[in-house]
Amino acid sequence: MSKIPTGLLVWTFLVPSTAFAADLPKQGTFKVTFFATDVLGKRTTLPTANGETAAINEQTYIYTNDAGSGFLHRATGRCLVSTTYSNAGFHALGPCTYADPDGDLIFSTFDLRGTGNEPPAGTKEYIGGTGKYAGLTGHATFTITRMKPIDKDTPPTVEGHVQGTYQLGG
After folding, report:
1. Which residues have CB under 8 Å from 26's CB, separation 6+?
2. Are 144 and 120 in contact (CB under 8 A)?
3. Which of 15, 73, 101, 125 has minimal Cβ neighbours within 10 Å of its Cβ?
4. CA angle at 170 for the pair 98 and 107, rounded to the nearest 5°
């Protein structure tokens, strides 16, 4: 049985991440798919006026770029979600932070609306970041679909599809 030097293993895992940073164009378009799951125990609700309910919760995200590389590929994230809802529909919004494989952060906000008759749709604004994303700006539209949970103890999960444009600062 042969032994692989530890340095070779570390190099193997770091090279794809470094290549990602060098290959990201300063501006472009993108299409990504994400999966989001509510963080259990992080939801608070209360009744409000006009038969609406307000809620706040936290969600975690996994992103992949549909092209297999590029903006938001293999990013993870977290959003704080503020929602109002009733029988007529819902409106959710909040801030999000994502980390790419290099550990650089992307900051965004979102606004999502839905009714019982139409698939939920929203917009995202990219408003900055760290490292290679310093000065990031951009805009995207997205849709979500709720996934059927395996049982009552499984947190709500959605699949989303985002498409938009971005520009890196500097």
Report:
1. 167, 168
2. yes
3. 15
4. 15
Which residue, chain included where needed, has tokens 């963080």?
39
Residue 149, token pair as written in the block: 């949970």
Q: Check residue 170 and give its pLDDT.
A: 60
Tens-place pLDDT, residues 11-20: 333 444 444 4
Residue with tokens 């989303």, as numbered in its chain: 160
Domains of the chain by range and CATH? 32-167 (2.40.350.10)
pLDDT at 157: 94
Q: Name the helix (H) or strand (E) containing 18.
A: helix 6-23
- CA dist 136 and 132 (Å) reads 9
Residue of 20, 57, 52 lying closest to 37 (CA atoms):
57
